[in-house]
Amino acid sequence: MVELAIRGHPSFQLCRVELDRPPPSYTIDTVRQLQSELRDPEIVWYFLVGSDTALELPAWREFGRLSKLVEFVAIPRPGHPAGSLPDGVREIPVKTLEISSSEIRRWIREGRSIHSVVPEAVGRYIEEHRLYR
User: Which tens digits make up the pLDDT trace of 74-128?
Assistant: First the structure.
């Protein structure tokens, strides 16, 4: 579905690093692999998370080391104000849809349209494969 969502957007590229590596897959390993493959000291690495997930970051594997490799940026999430983020995580104020993936799945179960909240190709894929029913 990610591939469908980004199709036609040249600024995005699908990366299968985590899918192609045997489990368990940890973020620290993914970041190290990507940085090793790209080897460009000029790149500034940003890791975007929802403000809800940002609160859990200190419990992530090797969070201290990871926070030296990337700059964590929190995106506001409905019902999760970013006011008390962990040290080293900054919020960027962006306009987001006031909806969660759980709510989208609930809409599908209820037979409601998701046309306004997912790309058209993703909506077709969900319908064709009868997902989240």
Answer: 998 877 766 678 888 998 888 888 888 899 999 999 999 999 999 999 999 999 9
CATH value of 2-96 in 3.40.50.620, 2.40.128.20, 3.40.50.1700, 2.40.128.10: 3.40.50.620
Amino acid at 120: E
Q: Domain extents for the chain?
A: 2-96, 98-133
Contacts of residue 116, defined as CB under 8 A and 6 or more positions apart, other chains included, come to: none
Cα 78 from Cα 58, distance rounded (Å): 21
What count of residues does the chain have? Answer: 133
User: Which of 122, 12, 26 is CA-nearest to residue 69?
Assistant: 26
